[in-house]
């Protein structure tokens, strides 16, 4: 434990993520990187509601084996109250812990400033940090930080490609979209079009979230511009044209591209190489008996949005594919079809619950990743050099799929275009039959097939990801520049000011 005098000299950063594991884990990774960048000089605290604290603690525990500075690197957890929400029992505070049809209750509470701001404001003022890092969903924290005279950084757990798409698509009049599809405006690179059914709900409903109104920016954009800067979990060489376009857009005052945050910091990576060990688990042991690049890994994130009928078809499709597979299922009420486990035998492994995804993707036996196209999963696949088969379901996942398949070309759609309707709405999901799944998986994994070509491309990006995080790399430099800018802003007494 550091002395009180030593701790008082530390740069104290308070990070406030949204109520989803897909946000909390990268926020925790970000906190870890911040303290490891300046061991002994930075102390980070991740602030969550009580039921979300275990998510932070689990993420920190997974970092301990490779921590490079022991007690000098401090990430702490603080809690604030979650509001009472009609229809949710006490202690249900994470979108990953409820049924898909109930997740909107948590989201509605989180997006309600009148409900959320008082508790967060009390926490920030009581903590008296030197800087605040806020989730984009809680952009009002920029104003709270400004009142305290401390800098605020907006942190985006997603990439720049989907962010630009989400911020520019509101300019499109969906009602007049030709052929039921829209093309993302003012986008570098290839034209990207999506059916309206594959757009996030707020865009389908033409809600004014990020929209410009007669030349006057809405409050979200105005608050965003008061922030010291905008940090994103990506790296420049992954999406260079889009990063440049984002910098030139004027959306933010300064951009910091600091990922992939799932990779260990420089000092921690060195510690892992010299003395650390990979975590042990039954699935890693199972992978150890499989040939290189032979296994398909399937996981659909912390917000699985798949019907039990679709899970049945997926199970039967994997059985028929003849390909070894490791499948993570987070639907506790579902059971595989009768006799399925016996027929599959040791060729497949079913994991119900948590699995060490980063370690799984790094395993040489894994040859492909069937993913929902959450940004965290895509970035982890890139870092590990694993090609992907895409199966998006909700939110901006269909947009990210276009990045994977049309921009960086590190994978293919599991269900070919034109094979059936896909949608961001559960009730509009069309069942993908077992035969189509088996055919797609088997074809992708065949020797000399699409997976081999995609693997060569993703291997190049993997090397660039690690170079970005290494000392002197672009993400390493941006992380240190961010800390320098926070220190300078704090020393000048300037918090978040208008650009």
Describe it.
With 499 residues, the protein is α/β, with parallel strands linked by helices. It folds into 2 domains: 4-268 and 471-492, Rossmann fold (3-Layer(aba) Sandwich); 279-463, Glycogen Phosphorylase B (Rossmann fold), CATH 3.40.50. The protein has 20 helices and 17 strands. A 7-stranded parallel beta sheet has the order 3-2-1-4-5-10-11, sandwiched between helices. β12, α13 (308-321) and β13 (325-329) form a beta-alpha-beta unit. α13 crosses α18 and α16 crosses α19. The longest helix is centred in the C-terminal third of the chain and has 20 residues, at 450-469. Residues 1-7, 65-72, 211-216 and 267-279 have low confidence and may be disordered. Belongs to the UDP-glycosyltransferase family. It is an enzyme of class 2 (transferase).
């Amino acid at each position: 434990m550091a002395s009180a005098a030593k701790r008082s000299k530390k740069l104290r950063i308070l990070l406030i993520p949204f109520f989803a594991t897909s946000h909390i884990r990268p926020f925790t990774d970000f906190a870890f990187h911040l303290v490891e960048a300046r061991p002994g000089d930075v102390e980070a605290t991740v602030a969550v509601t009580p039921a979300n604290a275990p998510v932070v603690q689990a993420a920190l525990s997974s970092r301990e084996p490779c921590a490079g500075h022991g007690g000098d690197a401090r990430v702490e957890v603080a809690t604030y109250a979650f509001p009472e929400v009609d229809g949710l029992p006490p202690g249900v505070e994470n979108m990953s812990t409820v049924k898909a049809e109930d997740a909107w209750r948590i989201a509605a509470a989180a997006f309600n400033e009148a409900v959320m701001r008082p508790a967060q404001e009390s926490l920030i003022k009581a903590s008296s940090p030197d800087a605040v890092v806020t989730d984009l969903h809680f952009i009002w924290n920029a104003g709270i930080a400004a009142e305290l005279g401390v800098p605020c950084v907006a942190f985006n757990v997603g990439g720049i490609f989907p962010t630009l798409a989400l911020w520019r698509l509101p300019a499109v009049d969906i009602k007049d979209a030709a052929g039921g599809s829209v093309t993302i405006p003012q986008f570098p690179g290839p034209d990207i079009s999506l059916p309206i059914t594959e757009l996030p709900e707020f865009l389908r409903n033409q809600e004014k979230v990020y929209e410009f109104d007669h030349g006057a920016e809405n409050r979200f954009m105005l608050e965003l511009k008061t922030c010291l800067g905008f940090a994103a979990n990506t790296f420049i060489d992954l999406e260079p044209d889009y990063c440049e376009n984002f910098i030139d857009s004027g959306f933010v005052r300064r951009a910091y591209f600091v990922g992939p945050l799932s990779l260990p910091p420089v000092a921690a990576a060195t510690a892992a190489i010299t003395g650390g060990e990979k975590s042990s688990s039954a699935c890693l042991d199972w992978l150890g008996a499989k040939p290189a690049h032979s296994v398909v890994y399937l996981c659909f994130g912390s917000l699985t949005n798949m019907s039990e009928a679709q899970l049945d078809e997926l199970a039967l499709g994997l059985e028929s594919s003849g390909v070894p597979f490791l499948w993570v299922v987070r639907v506790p009420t579902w059971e595989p079809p009768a006799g399925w486990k016996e027929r599959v035998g040791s060729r497949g492994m079913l994991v119900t619950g948590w699995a060490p995804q980063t370690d799984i993707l790094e395993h040489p036996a894994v040859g492909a990743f069937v993913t929902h196209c959450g940004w965290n999963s895509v970035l982890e696949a890139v870092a590990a050099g694993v090609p992907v088969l895409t199966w998006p379901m909700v939110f901006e996942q269909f947009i990210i799929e276009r990045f994977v398949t049309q921009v960086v070309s590190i994978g293919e759609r599991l269900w070919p275009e034109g094979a059936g309707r896909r949608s961001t709405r559960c009730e509009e999901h069309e069942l993908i039959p077992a035969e189509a799944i088996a055919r797609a998986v088997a074809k992708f994994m065949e020797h000399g097939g699409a997976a081999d070509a995609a693997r060569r491309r993703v291997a190049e990006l993997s090397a660039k990801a690690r170079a970005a995080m290494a000392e002197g790399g672009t993400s390493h430099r941006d992380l240190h520049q961010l800390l320098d800018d926070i220190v300078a802003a704090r020393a000048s007494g300037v918090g978040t000011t208008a650009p």
